Amino acid sequence: VAASSGKRDGENGDVQGAHISYYTAQSFKDSVQDSHPEFHTSACKPKSDTPNAGTPMIEWRDGEPYSTVYQDVYFSRESGPDETRHVFLQHNQLRERWLAMHGQPGQGNEGRQARHFTIAETGFGTGLNLLCAWQLWEETAPHDARLHFISTEKHPLSHSDMQQAWASWPEFSR
């Protein structure tokens, strides 16, 4: 998954030009192969020793996704967003780092480089880190800054499972 925020409208905070791309291993391989045939993309194939590699193996227990592969929940039963804010955002000091970007030169008429921040993670899961990070970015980062969020997932959720998981957090819907 790759997400990139566009420039925000200063009055209402709406993201203009936001872009989220979701690739399966095969679609990523195909897109790389089409645009760069010189790249060897066999590493994008699921390992043959992994049963049902690339297939999500989840159960819904009490309305929450549970990984049958890792025998674990995808997020805290009490509050997944609160857990993510504490573990991911707070411990990476993202609020402080993004607020500090206000003092850095941004893109202006003088042709200075735009401010940007990149997050790369393994284990996209339900995308809760992306949702919480994007929410905090909207609250703290300069309006002309850009956030690039790159994530991988060995067992991506189906579209319907992702919709069901995201329905748990109405605070992120627009």
Report on this model:
This protein has 174 residues and is α+β, with helices and mostly antiparallel strands. It has helices at 25-35, 80-90, 94-100, 128-140, 159-166; strands spanning 2-4, 19-21, 58-61, 64-67, 72-73, 116-122, 146-152. The strands form two sheets. The protein has a four-stranded mixed sheet, covered by helices on one side. The two termini are 20 Å apart. Mean pLDDT is 74; it is low at 7-18, 35-50 and 107-112.
Task: Summarize the SSE layout with pairings.
Blueprint: E1 2-4, E2 19-21, H1 25-35, E3 58-61, E4 64-67, E5 72-73, H2 80-90, H3 94-100, E6 116-122, H4 128-140, E7 146-152, H5 159-166
Parallel strand pairs: 6-7
Antiparallel strand pairs: 1-2, 1-7, 3-4, 4-5
Count all strands and give the number: 7
Main sheet properties: 4 strands, mixed
Name the strands of the widest sheet in spatial order.
2-1-7-6
**Portion of residues within helices:** 25-40%
